[in-house]
Design brief:
It is a single chain. The chain is an all-alpha fold and 111 residues long. Helix content is 52%, strand content 0%.
Length: 111
Amino acid sequence: MKVSWVRAHAGNIGNERADQLAKDATQHGQPYSHIKLPKPHIKGLLRKRMLDEWQTSWKNGDTGRKIYNNMPSVSLRPPNWIREDVIFFSQHGPFPASLKRFHLSDSDYCS
């Protein structure tokens, strides 16, 4: 790509077209572009947007706050947690309180 100064309104077709596109963009608020982006680039942009939205939802959500305290950032990669970590942080395991909550025990006290 080469960038150079061009005299305005001198009949240069490319410059006149650029002026028209800039004017359209300011009047309509929409960028006008025929530039084709590579698919991997578009996928990267979409992935970043998805992760940003997911992060905002996770940060401002009402559920999973105990896990949020240990994992404040979202990721497409699974954490390297062992089974016991998952049970402990999710509080879904063979605990008396969990068993009672799911009607698998009559008492939530340890015996």
